[in-house]
């Protein structure tokens, strides 16, 4: 086992930023400092393959490591970005871990003459690539249901999404992998479908449903990841208050769901999620860090090869 090193962090109570500092930094004088014996953070849901990061990916990764990020799970939305995610995982081995899957909402061009709802045909291009890289994957994702009215207008659309999710749940079971799940405006239907399919390991990212519905997922053994947008979301704050810490993981969903609207989110903001959770739960930042990282290791066991507590 690797020995755990103490690191020093400065918590900015107004901006919610957590910054790793050198003990000799002049900013240490009179500052509110937390000295923690820690493992580090895991970003369980991140779109690091997004074009938003093409120009400064190295800087983005470096800055995230500076705040204690140990690993991030790169999720996909469609087959077109699978190879890029695999390439990034090879470029940053032991730090970026790939998850491949088909999102319930797809980007479609006018020429395709179809709505954005995922269909089984969207899996045609995805399945061969998933099969090719199955030994490298830590999860199947991003998959799920999205019943937001602007995307779903009828029961046929909902059933189409269900079929795609069911198939990917089957694939995950065949490969013995967890699911990284999207459930916008469909919390209860998503949890019910996962339970019906016998899914035992699942992460529900940025869950937007009622805490009472989330507790159904807790009873099924599922985990819920919390993004930095919690600082501006009363719903997320209520969710964290209700959820057991033992079922909470961290995420950024970068480049989306940052602490500020219309501003690119980055993996380094993982510490914002952690600090806000510590405030709500009334526990130390160290406790949040250690418990959420252990939760991530339980849910995504392939991370253990890179993260040794």
Automatic annotation (TrEMBL):
Gene3D superfamilies with a match to the protein in the record: Metal-dependent hydrolases
MF terms (GO), sorted A to Z: hydrolase activity, acting on ester bonds; metal ion binding
Keyword annotations of the record: Hydrolase, Metal-binding
Annotated CDD domains: TatD_DNAse (cd01310)
InterPro entries, per database record: Metal_Hydrolase, TatD-like
Secretion signal, residue range per the UniProt entry: none
Binding site for a divalent metal cation 2: 182, 205
One Pfam family linked to the record: TatD_DNase
Binding site residues for a divalent metal cation 1: 45, 47, 142, 253
Family (UniProt): Belongs to the metallo-dependent hydrolases superfamily. TatD-type hydrolase family.
Function: Exhibits 3'-exonuclease activities and apurinic/apyrimidinic (AP) endonuclease (in vitro). Show preferential AP endonuclease activity on double-stranded DNA substrates and 3'- exonuclease activity on single-stranded DNA.
Protein name: Putative deoxyribonuclease TATDN3
